[in-house]
Amino acid sequence: MLDQPFDADSLYALRAAAAAHASQAGMREGRCDDLVFVVSELAANAVRHGAGSGRLQMWTLAGILHCRVSDDGAAQRSSHEGDSGGAAGAAAQDPAAALPVTRGHGLWAARQIADQLSLRSGPEGTIATVTFALPAARPSFHLTRHTRDDGTVLELAGDLDRRSAPELTAAIRDLTTGTPALRLVLDLAALTFWDSAALAALITVQRHINDTPAATLTLTGMSDQFRHRLEALGLISQSAPDDTAGPPPGQITPPR
Amino acid sequence: VSAVSLAGRGRYGLKIGSASPGSGRGSGCLMSGDDVVAVGADAQITDLAVNDHACLTFGEAEEMFDLTAAFVRDGLSGGLKVVWLSDLAPPQALGELTRRGITAEPAAAAGQMVVAASQDSLLAGRAFAADHAMGWLTGQMSAYRGEGYPGLRIAIDMSWALRPVAGIEQLPGFEEGIAAALAATKVSVLCQYDRDRFDAVTLASVSAFHSRSVAAATYHNDAVLRICRQYAPPGIRLAGEIDQSAEDALAMAMAEAIRVDGDITVNMAELSFIDAACTRMIIDTARSLSPARRVALWCSPAITPRFVLLGATDVRCISLVTGHDR
Fold this sequence. Notes:
The structure holds 2 protein chains of 2 kinds.
Chain A: E1 2-7, H1 11-24, H2 29-49, E2 53-61, E3 64-71, H3 88-93, H4 106-113, E4 116-122, E5 125-133, E6 142-148, E7 151-160, H5 165-178, E8 183-194, H6 196-210, E9 216-220, H7 224-232
Parallel strand pairs in A: 7-8, 8-9
Antiparallel strand pairs in A: 1-2, 2-3, 3-5, 4-5, 6-7
Helix pairs in contact in A: 1-2, 2-4, 5-6
Chain B: E1 14-16, E2 28-30, E3 53-58, H1 61-77, E4 81-86, H2 90-99, H3 104-110, E5 113-117, H4 118-122, H5 130-146, E6 152-157, H6 171-182, E7 187-194, H7 200-207, E8 212-214, E9 218-221, E10 225-231, E11 234-242, H8 247-259, E12 264-274, H9 276-287, E13 295-299, H10 304-309, E14 318-322
Parallel strand pairs in B: 3-7, 3-8, 4-5, 4-6, 6-7, 11-12, 12-13, 13-14
Antiparallel strand pairs in B: 1-2, 9-10, 10-11
Helix pairs in contact in B: 5-6, 8-9
């Protein structure tokens, strides 16, 4: 949720905040530029034709990013740079009706670009709301634990990144607390994404297992590319056999 | 006497008063504010004459390439020999000129244009010696006449002097030597200094030896947006983000750009945001021109859709060029 006031001198900061927020919500670059354009036009409109200042609120609901631009109301609404002539009378009742939604102008362009745009005016001012669908959500990170005769298997599914990495390290800390002689297998087959926070989490986990004398850790299921990276980081040994009949690849046991 | 004044570090800018195109000389006035002290420019790049020793200050690589391209273009079209000591590898340097519409490669093939690495020409190994560098210059000055050219233009990118080079304290001596060597000749030298990377003391120590100071005419310059004139190809250049708050500066820049005859370019390759009002102003300006004139809009990928949506493709004289495929 973003809630930021703006006026004529802070539109640059408003654009930066909107871009950061949309990007954080998962919007892709081009659509992010679109959102910034639309929000900027709505805010400029509030500055030019409304109270001269206002606020932007952004929130995500059910996969849709909502942006609400409201002016500070109680404004002296000067007539706009006339391109919807004769609207002055209508403007007295409904200021939104007088806004220049004319082909080729800012609000018109905003309407073409946003998924939905609504304008309404009341005594508290004009409120513009636009929505943008977010790209289909990434699979959420998911840990599944299986207990087998030869140990405990943790299946990692989804994106292991800055947000989800703490979940992994916390889960393993809990497991070793309950079972000091843990024989742990981390199955990475369903991992969809990793970043440096994921690498850091795996290194942290390895250190933690190494500090627990009776515990062992095995990594399995990773792509060749990810395996090479883990080898380079010393997380798994390069001589690990890639043979399902033998010990799982990437075994780092016994702990040093 | 140089018109370069220098009283501190910070952003520099030249504000155009009532300048008409091509009459830049004397039209500059210093922009100053609390933390803004300017190196003012007293000449446009297109105004340089024979035996000028000009000090070009620039803020971005695009600006330096643009001004260099204009210097090279005017030299080549005047039949002069042109030498550019660049910080780039020669093929890249030629590419930057070609991209700006300069027939640099044929000129290089014919020997009229020479692009060389500044390091190889001015330095002896990793050391700088004013005598050695002057030796290179006098060699060039005696060679061009033998090759049958009526004059010589030399542009020197001074970026090498930002690196740890022994003997760099002799730089002012070299600049003084150039000034003396050019008197009563048909040779002009354009020294190119990055005004943000060179320290104030160095700029001050060399500025006095130049007969002219040159910079891009600038209509707007702050942390968010820069609007300046583009010289090759002629037009204006926008960098940063523009919205209606800069509409007046944009209007002035566009008005000056179209006052010159011929095609114009609005270079927005480094512009990351433009609002509907400014997009429309550029399109409307182009629409107002006679149909024979062309307006090339160089756009970053972020802003091309704005121009298309607001009708640029309906205006016959506009050509939209996106990204680095220009």
